[in-house]
Amino acid sequence: MRQLFPVVRDPVDPADVYADVPIAADRPGVRLNMIASADGATAVNGRSGALGGAADRIVFIALRSLADMILVAAGTARTEAYGPARLSESVQAERWQRGQTPVPAIAVVTRTAALDWDSPFFTEATVRPIVVTVSTSPNQSRASEVADVVIAGDDDVDLRRALDALAERGARSVLAEGGPSLNAQLAGAGLLDELCLTLAPSLVGGDAKRIVSGPAFGARHELRLISVCEEDDFLFLRYGFRR
Question: Would you tell me which of 70, 178, 233, 236 could form a disulfide with 229, CB atoms 3.0–4.6 Å apart?
Fold first, then answer.
């Protein structure tokens, strides 16, 4: 992989490019990682994985290796067949030295907590997953058997309360992995600090969602470009949010 901006570096290690995780004053810093085609599609036949490649996978793993926790919507976890986070032994050792768990816990956001409790996501996890839900969810008891349960609202998940709860569990940096509706809620609440966008070298067409899907914001969110990397015709764009 080569870095094109802010300075040219060839080769460059993605773990170095993204090492300075975003920091927020009163909550965990939140970094959003998404992939989109050149025409803005976030999925092919409903799945984002079809847009990626080997280079994108390297960046995906690098971002996970740096985060304390991962935040994902239940629909995305279901569609993308999420399993527990997996990292090499050397990366796990580096995390341990930094005071992190060997792999990041994954927190799933869901109003109903109607999840597949027998899926590898729960049964093969080495770090206990987290289910972020609401007080009216009918499945809290079942969820608590295989995961830590965070109640963050009554009828709708309050993402700020969710992040506060993750902070109480030791999270200083959170990696959000979508989907587009969760991204819109995070952005609308002013809870995003950084966007890591992989631009895939493909045209998809169709009606796939954009990386943020929801009501228009009251004011647009201004971004500043931090870095640009390239490999195999994929562009890896890193933006900070201007406050």
Answer: 236
